[in-house]
Amino acid sequence: MTELIDRPPLADQPPSPTAELLRVRELGVAFGERVAVRGVDFALGAGESLGIVGESGSGKSTTALALLRMLPPGGRITGGAVELDGQDLAALPEEALRAVRGQRIAMVFQDPMSSLNPVLSVGRQLDEALRAHGGRRPRAERAARAAELLELVGVPKAADRLGDFPHQFSGGQRQRIMIALALAHDAQVLVADEPTTALDPTVQRQILRLLARINRERGTALVVISHDLGVIAETCSRLLVMRDGEVVERGATARLLTAPEHAYTRSLLAAVPRLDAPSRAAGNSTPGAEPLLVVRGLAKAYGPRRRRSPALESVDLDLHPGETLGLVGESGSGKSTLARALVGAHAPDAGSISFAGQPLDGRRARREVQMVFQDPYASLNPRLTVGRIIAEPLIAHKVGDRAQRQARVAELLEQVGLEASAAARSPREFSGGQRQRIGIARALAPEPSVLVCDEPVSALDVSIQAQVIDLLARLQRELGLAVLFIAHDLAVVRQVSHRIAVLHRGRIVESGPADRVVTSPEHPYTAELLAAVPSLSPATSGSLL
Amino acid sequence: MTTISLPPAARSRSGNRSRNRYVAGLRTWRGVTGLVLVGTVALAGLLAPWLTGADPDAQGPQALAAPSGAHPLGTDDIGRDLLSRVLHGILTDLSIILTAVPAGALTGAALALLAGTSRAADLVVQRLFDLVLSFPGLILGLAVTAILGPGRWPVVIIIALAEVPYFGRQLRAGVLVQREREYALAARVGGAGRARVLLRHVLPNAVDPLVVQGAVALSAGVFIEGALSFLGLGVRPPEPTLGSLISGSVAYLDTHPVLAAPLAVTTALVLGFTLLAEALNRGART
Amino acid sequence: MRTFLFKRLPSGLAVLLAASFTVFLMLRLIPGDPATTLAGPDASPATVAAIRERLGLDAPLLSQYLHWLGQVLTGDLGPSYAIGGQVSELIGDGLAATFQLTLAALLLVVLLAVPTALYAVSARRRALAGALRALTTGALAVPPFVTGVLLVLAFAVGLGLLPAGGHASLFDAPDLAVQYLALPALCLALPSAAILARYLQDGLERALGEDYVRTATALGVPRRRILWRHALPNALPSAVTVLGLQIGQLIAGAVVVERIFAWPGLGQLIEQGVSRRDYPVVQDLLLLVVAGYVAVQLLTDLLYSWLDPRVRWE
Q1: Known Gene3D superfamilies for this protein (chain A) (predicted)?
Q2: How far is CA A273 from the centre of its chain?
Q3: What do you get for the CA distance between the two ends of chain B, in Å?
Q4: A385 contacts B14? CB cut-off 8 A
């Protein structure tokens, strides 16, 4: 990778961390009547890095957007100041603000796919960023600079790729391009709002490294917003913890991780699964000796006949009753294809799935194998009541009459920790965690013996994550379920699984007891995955800096 | 066992947020204006027998009479009472579009669902829509009239046929999107058969855009009826329709401005439907 | 381009072929065959049979169809039944007039719609944007036959500025031709211009609410430039599709407009053909319109894929 600096601005004179480059005073933001952020107050020196962490609804992203006065429609800054070098951005006229945005303070957004213009080439977009400030530079000079920027953020063969469009890049590369745009004018402050949320752990690690390198080598002050404490702990030297629009705790990252003062910070830290904590699955249930579900040589390919791309090459799996098998893989590894094949949603091209010694056909699969989905919003039919959603499998399998089904729904709701009265309501009225409970109740309705959980907690806040994991553990204990727990987060998987299997490009590259796979991985890919997991140990805080 | 307490009961009874959005759309100035326009015109048509005693087809002694007590809007070029003809014309138009549009919508929806059953069916249905759409607007009308001749039913068939691909394509697109949503997979995993997933889960979530299309289609229906009548290929005389009234009055408009009444009524009706479509569309998008 | 050549072009041709067969079959469905119509009510069965044989109506359907396709491909369409003269000549006479009319209307559509949409989106004064919106709604709500009548009343009868109807050759008397063209073209263009303006405005508004516009704003790109260089390229592809569909409406609308303004084009011809049951004329004109429209659709698709790289690279 090339050096970051084309004209070393700060190589000889390291930034003084005491200088107040960005000073936020008593910032308040409201959407209509609803207060989203109140009394946020912090200072950032040149070359410093600050993390803002919080769960959904904490106001962290709103704070980030308010720094550039880029609130979505309906939002307004109700008070306070955002001073950049003494200049209050919150009070600046629009044209003066435009001159600051992208030049002195820049932003990297969460979803690089939607944040890049789909019909403009990457070169054009970089060019747009370059010509937004600083007079007219000749076209050739801008093109050279655009290539330089792209190379800077680690896009291979940068000069050749300027004519390509965003959809021709991978997710990680798109985020790199976003960062290149933000770097166009060597801004003093870079605000990154959930910069790695949709990315795989290994890609996430690369992006975080890049941000840290920019911070270190260019002296760009960094503000990173994330829901993931691990992400922030490794990239930022100082932390703000937000909840309900307010800062509840602030301090040096190492201190916050070891000695949190506020009860909320403590509970947040406690809820984060640790990779170094041993598996708790053995204390939960003991798997049976005979495998319940046996998968052999499963293969599946997608696409038109000529250019089929394999999603699963050849997968062998055993799942025992009462066992939780953790299946780890990044996007494109084939984990969702595997899950869908197991529940009979599509037929595999080759291989066999047998259940209790017999081939698993569609009808049997639909009773014995049920699924819990990732997205608690998309997986519940918005047109049906909760009761009807849970009763649907019962109706489909012609179980009981109306009254019996009603009683069963009430029983299931209580089993997953919801009131029976929830049945009459719409799923819209429930939070993400509650919706996930509804999804679990639906999966339990036909009394399955296998539960396939496809990323069941990755869309949830950490505190809610912990609750749903506890629920799944309890259900396994009570019902003796076999669980296939699919996730990308190794720490969660280790915590809940008896065994772990690692899926990579449609093949299981490694499987074994959960603790063994994590502590002494045999396959290099497993080791790579493990190295990418952000760590919360104070020893590694700010390790990327 | 711990039970998580539920959020306080939401403002409205479950499930129908999308319905409410349409209602909210209708409450905007566009929606209200549209409702008032359509409502007034429709009511005038429905109450025609009570609003006027005159026979719309009876020819009086005086052609092109000025408005008077006996003829509030005067008479047309062959001495028929204009008010009565306008009111009955509204009735004819309404009866035509209210037969044709639902028929077109249902046929289109049925074809879209058929397309949802298999790849081959999808291909056939799509080409069928393409075929109908390859006769643009009024040209389709002329083609059908060439076979069936002018008349009331040909007009109904033309309007219905013209709307089939619009409803069908929209529903097909909706079905394709909704079918890939996780809740549809969940229903399938829960044991529901293909037909049940399509009809009970996917369809209710995909029909919403058809509401907007319905309002658009109603205004298009008035357009098509009018254009066909204007060309003398619509409903057979002497039955009054808005289009034939306009067509008949054109020649005398510069000397007898009151003959602009059918023109104004048609415009009000179409404007009403257009505003309703816009209001519903905006409601759906917010 | 490859996708276009291998997928869209064949499916366009398939639609065209299906449409030609439909048109052919449709006109054979009519009760009472053309020969009876042509021979007149008092003709003897022998005369009818003779006519039938002369027209090839006693041949099997498929061979009749193929014969017709052959005629279409060679351009010799045979005699008309009722209007008189050779169909090829009738169509030839009207084609130029209709082409002038629709092309002028198409130009007007683009010239009216695009600035309106851009202006409505960028207008700082909300009232102005609202007024433009109301104007487009109004243009949408008035059927073309009404607009036509109103235009004639206002410009021809009232102000006496332009002729109420008629046609002059563009080559012999250009200034007169433009005067004759102005009202019908405007009348034809208005509804389509309103629809295009509305779609483009909606597309621009949607694009302006997208994340990539937020990115551009955060980079300090000026507002005007965001509209022109970031939002417009995203709104353009679907606007082109709408424009393609509106060309169909222009062709269809020409039938009515030509009637109002006594414009001697194909619209008049097809209308006469339908009302006088001149089947060769109707059949050939329908095929011509469908062929033209399918070609327009293909061009639109090509333009779309050129404007949207996501389609281009598939």
Answers
A1: P-loop containing nucleotide triphosphate hydrolases
A2: 14
A3: 41
A4: yes
- B8 neighbourhood in chain A, CB within 8 Å: none
pLDDT digits over C222-253, tens only? 999 999 999 999 999 989 989 998 998 899 88
Q: Which of A344, A373, A383 sits opposite B182 (nearest CB)?
A: A373
Mapped to the 3 state alphabet, what secondary structure does chain C carry? CHHHHHHHHHHHHHHHHHHHHHHHHHHHHCCCCHHHHHHCCCCCHHHHHHHHHHHCCCCCHHHHHHHHHHHHHHCCCCECCCCCCEHHHHHHHHHHHHHHHHHHHHHHHHHHHHHHHHHHHHCCCHHHHHHHHHHHHHHHHCCHHHHHHHHHHHHHHHCCCCCCCCCCCCCCCHHHHHHHHHHHHHHHHHHHHHHHHHHHHHHHHHHHCCHHHHHHHHCCCCHHHHHHHHHHHHHHHHHHHHHHHHHHHHHHHHHHHHHHCCCCCHHHHHHHHHHCCCHHHHHHHHHHHHHHHHHHHHHHHHHHHHHCHHHHCC
CB distance from C156 to chain B under 8 Å? no
Is the peptide bond preceding residue B238 cis, with omega within 30 degrees of 0? yes
pTM: 0.86
Domains within chain B, CATH numbers bracketed: 16-54+81-285 (1.10.3720.10)
B267 touches chain C (CB under 8 A): yes
Cβ distance of C211 and A128 shorter than 8 Å: no
Tens of pLDDT, residue by residue over C133-161, are 888 888 888 877 778 878 887 887 777 77
Residue A223's φ and ψ, nearest 5 degrees, are -120, 115
Residues 19-58, chain C, touching B (beta carbon < 8 A): 19, 22-23, 26-27, 29-30
DSSP 8-state symbol, A428 = G
Strands A369-372 and A450-454, bridge-based pairing: parallel
Q: Which of B183, B197, B199, B201 to mutate to test the interface with A (most CBs of A within 10 A)?
A: B183
B201 chain-A contacts, CB cut-off 8 A: 381, 383
Determine phi and psi for A31, rounding to 5 degrees: -110, 105
CA distance A142 to A127: 6
The pLDDT tens digits for C6-23 are 777 888 888 888 888 888
Interchain proximity B190–A428, CB inside 8 Å: no
Measured in degrees and rounded to the nearest 5, phi and psi for residue A377 equal -95, -45
H helices of chain B, where? 17-26, 29-46, 48-51, 82-115, 119-133, 138-148, 152-179, 182-189, 194-196, 203-206, 208-230, 242-249, 261-285
The token pair at A123 is 């070169």
**Cβ-defined contact of A378 to B4 (cutoff 8 Å):** no
| B180 touches A: beta carbon within 8 Å | no
Which element (helix H / strand E) includes B193?
Answer: none
**Residue A345 has what pLDDT?**
84
C239 contacts chain B (CB < 8 A): no
- CB-CB: which of A366, A425, A446 is closest to B14? A425
What pLDDT, on a 0 to 100 scale, did the predictor assign at position B18? Answer: 58
Cα–Cα distance, A147 to A40 (Å, whole number): 38
Closest chain C residue by Cα to residue B251: C149
Task: Enumerate residue ranges in chain C where pLDDT < 70.
Answer: 1-5, 31-34, 37-38, 170, 312-314
Alpha carbon distance, N-terminus to C-terminus of chain C: 10
Which chain B residue shows the shortest CA-CA distance from C195? B274
Q: Hey, which residues 275-314 in chain C have their CB within 8 Å of chain B?
A: 275, 277, 279, 282, 286, 289-290, 293-294, 297
- Per-window interface: C 182-221 vs A, CB < 8 A: 209-212, 214-221
Please indicate whether, in this complex, the C-beta atoms of B137 and C273 are within 8 angstroms of each other. no
Given A378, A419, A429, which is nearest B3 (Cβ)?
A: A419
